[in-house]
Each structure stands twice: as C-alpha cells, then as structure tokens.
Design goal:
Pfam families: FGE-sulfatase, PEGA. With about 350 residues, the chain is an alpha+beta fold. It has two domains: about 70 residues, Immunoglobulin-like (Sandwich); about 230 residues, paralog of FGE (formylglycine-generating enzyme), CATH 3.90.1580. It is about 15% helix and about 25% strand. The chain contains six helices and 16 strands. The strands form five sheets. Strands 3-2-5-6 form a four-stranded antiparallel sheet, with no helix packed on it. Strands 15-14-12-16 form a four-stranded mixed sheet. The longest helix has 15 residues. It is globular, with a radius of gyration of 24 Å.
Amino acid sequence: VEEGKVLPVHLTLSSGRSVTLQTDREGDILYVDGKRVGVSPQKLELSYGIHTIRAERGEQYTEKELEVTETGGERVVTLGFGLLSQIRWSSSVTPKQKEILSRLIGNMVRVDGGSFEMGATSEQGSNVTSDEELVHQVTLSDYYIGKYEVRQSEWEVVMGNNPSYFKGDDLPVEQVSWEDCHEFIRRLNALTGLNFKLPTEAQWEYAARGGRWSKGYKYSGSNDLEEVGWSWENSGVQVLTGEWDEKKVKKNHCQTHPVGEKHPNELGLYDMSGNVWEWCQDWYGYYNRNTQVDSAGPARGSYRVARGGCWFRDAWFCRVSYRNCQTPVHCYSYLGFRLVC
C-alpha cells in the first residue's frame, strides 16, 4: 500500500437481527406485518423497528407487537394460545427464565370438565385398599394440567437450586416436600402473572383417567404399565420380576427417567403412572358417598395426598385409583409433582 493513498472500503451494515418465532405447536401459520412467513417454528431476519407478528391455528389467532432493536430484546418469541396468551411477565424475569417457563406453560394441557366415578372402579380389580374402595361421583370444571411432571430445569430456573437425588435437566424434580412445591408455585406465579397450583386429588385422578376421553384403563393410558410408566420392574439396568425387593431395586440401579419417554394417556399426558409420586393439594382422608363438585378434599388433616406410583415400587401402586399420603415436609427421590392452572 502506497503511503498517502486512499483505498475504497466496502462495509455491510446490519439493518436487522435474527429472531425465531414459535408457538406451542409445530405447524401454526406465522405472519409478520400481514405477510405470511411460514409455519412455527420459524427463524428469520427482521429489520429494526416495531413489527406485528401473528399466528393462526384454524379459526384461532393470536398476535403481538415486537420491537426489534440492535441490542437486547427477544431472540426467541413465543406467541401464545391458551395460557401462553395470558402470561404477564414480571419485570425481573430473565431471558433464560422466560425461555424455560414458556416451554412449561406451553405444555399445559386443557382438560374439559365433566363428571366421573372416582375410586376403585371395576377395572381396578378386587385387590384394592379400603381408602380407595368407595366409588363416588365427582364433577369438575375446566382446568389446565401439566403434560409432564415438573422438570429439574424448570425447578432450578425458578428456585436457583436442584434438590434432586438423580440429576438431569429433563428428569422430574424430586426430593421436594409439599411445602417446597408451594414456594416454587408462589415464585412461578410472581414471574408469570398466572395462577398455578397443585392439582386437587379429584383433578389428578380425572386427568389420569383421560378425562372425557377415558377408555377405562387400570393405569394412566393403558392396562399394561410397561407401555406408559416406570416402576421398579423396568426403571433399572435390567427388567426385574417376582416379588418387590428393595435390595434388587438398589442393585439394579433403578431410578427416575426423563419425562415423556413412555406413551401418553388419552389426554396426551405423560408419566401419570410411575416415574415419581405426585403431590396433590388435598389433605388425606377417607372418601364419602356424597356427589361432589370441584372437591378440594377434607378441611384439615395431618398428611397430604400423593398419587401415581413411582420408579421405586411395583405396578400395583401405579393404578389410577391408588392413594398415598405423606407429611407435608416429607422429601424423597421418588416424590415430585405436576401443576394445574
């Protein structure tokens, strides 16, 4: 280069940034400023400024304004149907919290309310316990319930810790007490502006049975637990048979498994039989014969209900009508939860 000589320099200045648009379901049609840009999820370049983004699902649609700036702002934008459209994020929420909790909320499944027979109905057989034996009618309003048990990644992004014995982002969180779950829910509601809760025992059983789509299975989604759930027999290195034996469980390295690996039930819910027991809101108590509407269980008690069975015990405990209970401070590697809203 000769001294003092001016050379031309060609610069390409960015006029936008890459943004991924998505909904809670693949294939929803996406629009930006009235122009169709593809289906969810879709990664595209958007120019700096304010854009109107829209998603359509049949006759349903949702839209929002998105400001694209040179620094900061959302790189993954989730358009919500159902609960996603009702989120009111706290000003303190972090990008990582928003990403992980959007997934959690997008995986909440709507359950249409209805009436069902709660308790040890005929498909459960004769080998049932006295506290599940009384069959009674319950009517429930609509609600949302988690497609999956709460993952460790979801717990950690809200609570800042992971108490689980078996570690893994997509493993169900465990070693959490009923009281711990309520602290998680309090913080989750503050971050999202939603009203999450533990399911009532009736909500849990109705959903486990498949709601209005129930086919009357013994377990949640099948009469064969192997298809839908993890128990001591199939959760370890080898398949176990015969009488339950704690020494066999430990020797076989039985443990929790990532949520959603088995087949779902009639509502598309996973792991409601097996993997981990799931806390319910109710105090534990014996059923009564009265027809109930949106039942919340006994007014007082010493133990809280847990449902669904777990990796540590055998299939009998994983039946949709079987009832367990623990003190509200109890923690163990077989005990987790899922959410309702």
